[in-house]
Amino acid sequence: MIHYEYAVGATPLDPDESVGLIPSHISNQSELNTWEEANIAQAEIWLDKKLKRLTSSMILTEDFVRALHLQMFNRTWRWSGKFRKSNKNIGVDWTYISVKLDDLLKNIQYQMRQQIYSIDELAIRFHHQLVWIHPFPNGNGRHARMMADSLLKSQGCDRFSWGGDYSLSTMNTLRKEYIDSLRKADNADYSELIKFART
Fold this sequence. Notes:
Layout: H1 15-18, H2 29-50, H3 56-59, H4 62-73, H5 97-114, H6 119-133, H7 140-154, H8 173-186, H9 191-197
Helix pairs in contact: 2-4, 4-7, 5-6, 6-7, 8-9
């Protein structure tokens, strides 16, 4: 049985979610992190191929939200691409995930059409709200960052650098800066998160 060591701001897994681990050789958090990073790297390749044909309206769908999470964790977790079925230390009540996600996707589509925000701010707001909903048992931050990057790419823009360390998988100063900027965004101040994303 693996002993999980959660970084600050990470979402702990429930026991029934923990048994969804696919690779049987993993025995500690470091091995899990390495395995997940390799899985996500393969998802990046999948995404780069998909983005050549995807529009923003195709990205801003529940199907794509689920498909991306599935690609990111399909070799790691049996529940990849499936919405959580329990409440966590963050996120909406699990019974409202589909409704809140649908609202978010429609709002972002509307804001894009109306050009209410710059594309960078729109992608950051999308990322923040997706993290706030927290649709999946785990991997929500990494997934939301990749979703925001997908939206940017669909508009011909460069991806965010996210502080220069896309995985943000270890507990360090960079992760603390990211979490702090998310908390400021909780109070409608997106300036630090935008700055962090383009650093």
